[in-house]
Amino acid sequence: MPSRRKRSKSPELPDFLAYRQQERIFASLNLVLLVFLCVAQFVWAAYLGTPHPQVLSLLGVGIVANFSELIWLKRRKELSSSAVLRLTWTMIAIHLGIAFGIASYSYKTDVQYFALMIPAILQAAFRFSGIATALTVAASDGLIFFWVWHYFRVHPPVDPNSYIEAGTVALIFAIMGFLVWALVNHLRRKERELIRSLDELEKAEAKLLEEEKLAAVGRFSSAIAHEIRNPVAMISSALVTASNREPGSEENREMYDIATKEAARLERLTTDFLAYARPRSPSMALSDVSDSVGYIAEICRPRAAANNVQVVCQCEAPLTAEIDSGQLQQALLNLAMNAVEASAPGGTVFLRGRRDGVRIMIEIENQNGPIAAKTIPLLFEPFFTTKSSGTGLGMGIARNIAMAHGGDIVLAQNDSNVIRFVLSLPARAERREDLA
Fold first, then answer.
1. Which fold has domain 223-277?
2. Which among 355, 353, 335 has a CA at the least distance from the CA of 419?
3. Handedness of CA 243, 248, 249, 250 (dihedral sign)
4. Left if phi > 0, otherwise alpha if psi is -120 to 50, otherwise beta: which for 194?
5. pLDDT tens-digit map of 181-202
6. For residue 237, which of 261, 264, 255 has the smallest C-alpha distance?
7. Residue 312, Cβ neighbours under 10 Å: how many?
8. Are 382 and 401 in contact (CB under 8 A)?
9. C-alpha torsion angle, residues 300, 303, 308, 314 (rounded to 10)
10. Handedness of CA 369, 371, 372, 373 (dihedral sign)
11. Are 31 and 67 in contact (CB under 8 A)?
12. 13 pLDDT more than 70
């Protein structure tokens, strides 16, 4: 089961990568505003007046602070939650302080410099709780009204329009801050709901997998019991019958022959069952797969000739791969013998090997199809067979071997003309020294 993604413990404090991406956006926004205001001091000097050294100095401090933050974050690989909190509050305080300082040194009744407070409010609304957002908005609005009051205390008389303007800006800041916080908080709730749903789905998946394992064990145990019961019953019946006959009689020998054959069948069944249930790990070695395909074709030809079936091997060479030759040959033999036994007299079984990109494809094909549609889902099920003498484990064993090699076996074509199984394997880049 795939491991769960590491999630942030607090929805308000994202993981470091997300935090770094967010902070880059806020720092970039601050830089745009600071650079714009710095350039405006010279471009609109006729309106704003001669740039004050203190104003330019504070703008420069803000630009340096944001550039420094970007460089520092780029070099960091991780950051604790407490460090995120400290850094965020520090940058908010710096931006509020710069905005208030520039407005104070400008000696103007205009409040355009308080636009520098917007990123700080957005930062608090985006990252903190509603209370923290309210504190940031209150600090921003308080600084605006304090500056207006202080300005008219030094430069009387009081202009009510300035208070109205400051109140309008303060209201905009409040609406903006709480609106952004509400939207972000809504997204956080949705995120928490999705995380809970994902946790529930993972638990349900784990439960279903466990139930499927138990069901598979049950089916497997039932099939084993059924397959073992028949030869054991035959052996028991034959021995009981033989015990009631004269020693050395023809019927007595016949019963012993039956018991011997069923015992051999039981041994073969047990061997195949162990090979299926507890497959041996392959001992990989660099080999030419075409050699194994050709070897299996030679082994199958005598049996095929007895059934009046021709075996044709068509292999590219070399087909270099890391394989366990013995296990691969066992898988190919199961597939090839099934194809031979399924072929009609006069038919042909093809064994082909070819490279397909980074895979090696081994095709086993016969011409007596198709396989019934209801049978296809059961082809690799243990103990499923359409042959009277089969154990029904050959296809399952072959597929386990293919998968242990990093490949698989699939039914690639199934119609009235062709039945083709394909065993795929990871290919190895062929070099002269590999084959020397």
1. Helix Hairpins (1.10.287)
2. 335
3. positive
4. alpha
5. 999 889 888 988 998 998 899 8
6. 255
7. 12
8. no
9. 0
10. negative
11. yes
12. no
Please give the Cα distance from 352 to 379 (Å, whole number).
21
Q: Which long-range contacts does 357-360 make (Cβ < 8 Å, 24+ apart)?
A: 357/427, 358/426, 358/427, 359/407, 359/424, 359/425, 359/426, 359/427, 360/289, 360/319, 360/321, 360/424, 360/425, 360/426, 360/427
Q: What is the 3-state secondary structure (H, E, C) of the chain?
A: CCCCCCCCCECCECCHHHHHHHHHHHHHHHHHHHHHHHHHHHHCHHHHCCCCHHHHHHHHHHHHHHHHHHHHHHHCCCCCHHHHHHHHHHHHHHHHHHHHHHHHHHCCCCCHHHHHHHHHHHHHHHHCCHHHHHHHHHHHHHHHHHHHHHHHHHCCCCCHHHHHHHHHHHHHHHHHHHHHHHHHHHHHHHHHHHHHHHHHHHHHHHHHHHHHHHHHHHHHHHHHHHHHHHHHHHHHHHHHHHHCCCCCCHHHHHHHHHHHHHHHHHHHHHHHHHHHHCCCCCCCEEEEHHHHHHHHHHHHHHHHHHCCCEEEEEECCCCEEEECHHHHHHHHHHHHHHHHHHCCCCCEEEEEEEEECCEEEEEEEECCCCCCCCCHHHCCCCCCCCCCCCCCCHHHHHHHHHHHCCCEEEEEEECCCCEEEEEEEECCCCCHHHHC
Highest average pLDDT, of 268-272, 296-300, 383-387, comes from: 296-300
Query: pLDDT tens digit string along 383-411?
Result: 666 666 656 677 888 888 899 899 999 99
CATH 3.30.565.10 fits 285-435, yes or no: yes
**pTM confidence score:** 0.47
Query: Vertex 407, ends 402 and 409: CA angle to 5°?
Result: 65
Q: Enter the tokens of residue 363.
A: 């095709």
Domain ranges of the chain: 16-202, 223-277, 285-435
358/380 Cα distance (integer angstroms): 25
Q: What residues contact 220, with CB distance under 8 A and at least 6 apart?
A: 277, 382
